[in-house]
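Priority: medium. Attachment 1 of 2:
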């Protein structure tokens, strides 16, 4: 569990402390996720709701790995990509999906820590493995849907000059553009809100433990 706590600290710094990920934090995050996934295969790690959330958090870095491996293959072997704009948008959106999934899962871990600290008995029926798996699944579905919307918007913008000038095509382009813009704004403010909430939660937990 000590290693898992260190991993959570690393992820909190990567996603909720740093304003944006850099090469060093991304590399350390990938190593931490790989090590965590190995640890979670051990029989010594009990199946708890927190462990389920941490496992899903580590799996989120698969999206980053796919992006990095794709870029390395293209750069190393000189693979010609049929649509450079599509590929670059996809890699960027995968990074965004990884960030959003990680922030949401880290916030779930923080909220669970808050319940354990202040409402250990009352919240026991909520802190179950089943609920943790359901929460992780919902987060993945929502963020992947968001990624698909962003990708569709980028694709339509890239091919807007070649699209037929039908009313339906114009309406589709405008709808996807407006929806993507609203979702990006919402994601930005959600990111700020999650940072504030996480700081408040661990502030309360820290001073509660200090008073004891």
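Attachment 2 of 2:
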């Amino acid at each position: 569990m000590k290693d898992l706590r260190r991993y959570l600290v690393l992820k909190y710094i990567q996603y909720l402390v740093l304003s944006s990920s850099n090469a060093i934090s991304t590399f350390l995050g990938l190593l931490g996720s790989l090590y965590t996934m190995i640890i979670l295969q051990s029989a010594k790690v009990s199946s708890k709701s927190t462990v389920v959330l941490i496992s899903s958090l580590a799996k989120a870095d698969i999206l980053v790995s796919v992006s990095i491996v794709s870029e390395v293959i293209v750069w190393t072997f000189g693979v010609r990509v049929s649509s450079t704009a599509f590929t670059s948008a996809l890699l960027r959106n995968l990074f965004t999906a990884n960030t959003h999934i990680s922030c949401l899962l880290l916030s779930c871990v923080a909220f669970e820590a808050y319940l354990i600290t202040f409402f250990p008995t009352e919240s026991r029926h909520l802190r179950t493995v089943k609920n943790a798996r359901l929460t992780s699944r919902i987060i993945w579905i929502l963020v992947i849907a968001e990624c698909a919307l962003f990708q569709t918007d980028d694709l339509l913008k890239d091919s807007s000059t070649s699209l037929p000038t039908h009313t339906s095509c114009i309406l589709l382009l405008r709808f996807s553009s407006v929806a993507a813009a609203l979702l990006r704004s919402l994601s930005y403010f959600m990111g700020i809100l999650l940072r504030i909430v996480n700081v408040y939660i661990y502030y309360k937990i820290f001073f509660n433990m200090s008073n004891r």
